[in-house]
Amino acid sequence: MASASLQFFAFILALLGVFGDITATLLPNWKVNADVGSNIITAITQMQGLWMDCTWYSTGMFSCTLKYSVLSLPVYIQAARTTMVLSCILSAFGICITTVGMKCTKLGGDADSKSYACFAGGACFILAGVFGLVPTSWYTREIISSFLDQTIPESSKHEPGGAVYTGFISAGFLLIAGVIFCTSCFRKQQGAWIYPPKQHHFPSTDQESNAGYNLKDYV
């Protein structure tokens, strides 16, 4: 029962990780630059994401431009696109597989089949977490390195946006959920291998009856 509750908790974490992963992939605020200028009325906020660049004006106007050309993008943005999409796909597969393999569901057949399905789903979550953690770390490194570069003007420097933090948190949720699923599925079987059930040998009733009969013959 405790293992089923732990799997349900991991499933909730995985759902939060999936939604956060998709949200971080689509958000345009991977890096943000707030340029106030000499007048607060003309202040603008520039945001750059994986798929589009957006500008938010203090007057309330909002405009976005899609990044159509893939080859013109920097390498870390191209890698972030690929790995984040793979993370979303793997986490979605993990949700489907663990739904079948969880102990609190009636799907998946016998206990061994559910254990293997649960382990496969946990592996998908771990891979999805790794694929989500790599682009966010690389993207953050590029932002920090350009921010500390003295040759880059202040107007062109950016800071990490909300999408980067969302990606970090989502990757952490997926990794934790994957580890819980992988360790909880085979815990019972591993205990059975380490501590095999003791076999109790009882004397046969036939032998006792025969022994009693032989004693009666000598009386």
CATH architecture of the domain at 4-27 and 74-194, please?
Answer: Up-down Bundle
Residues in β-strands, percent = 5-15%
Taking the sheet with the most strands, its summary is: 5 strands, antiparallel
Distance between the ends: 60 Å
**Shape, principal axes of CA atoms:** elongated
Radius of gyration: 29 Å
Give the topology string: H per helix, E per strand. Answer: HEEEEHHEHHH
What is the mean predicted local confidence, pLDDT?
80
CATH C-level class of the domain at 4-27 and 74-194 is Mainly Alpha
Give the proportion of residues in helices: 55-70%
Strand order of the largest sheet: 4-3-2-1-5
The SS-based structural class is: alpha+beta
Number of strands: 5
- According to CATH, the fold-level topology of the domain at 4-27 and 74-194 is Butyryl-CoA Dehydrogenase, subunit A, domain 3
Subcellular location: Cell junction, Tight junction; Cell membrane
Function: Claudins function as major constituents of the tight junction complexes that regulate the permeability of epithelia.
Keywords: Cell junction, Cell membrane, Membrane, Signal, Tight junction, Transmembrane, Transmembrane helix
Family: Belongs to the claudin family.
